[in-house]
Design goal:
mainly alpha, 3 helices
Amino acid sequence: MYWLIIIAWMYVVFMMAISEALSSQGSVLGAAITLIFYGIVPLSILLYLLGTPVRRARHQTQQPEPPSKAGAPSKGAGTPDCGSEAPGHTITPEGKEP
């Protein structure tokens, strides 16, 4: 959705730069400055801010999980119904037969 806004804004800035360059009182340098300071700089800031959630999610998926404390049970350890076991199934201690 925001790509439509970006394209429309660049169209407006491009038309401003053309009218600046073709004006009798304007110059090509003024058109270049208009294009840079009204178009490229604000859009680069906008794209950076809009890309922040994607970068944050990518950064979190690349981070390894912090190691758990020694002797502390891991997530869901010891509970028989933590989503991967059938209800009513008991977990036997390690090395023991039921």
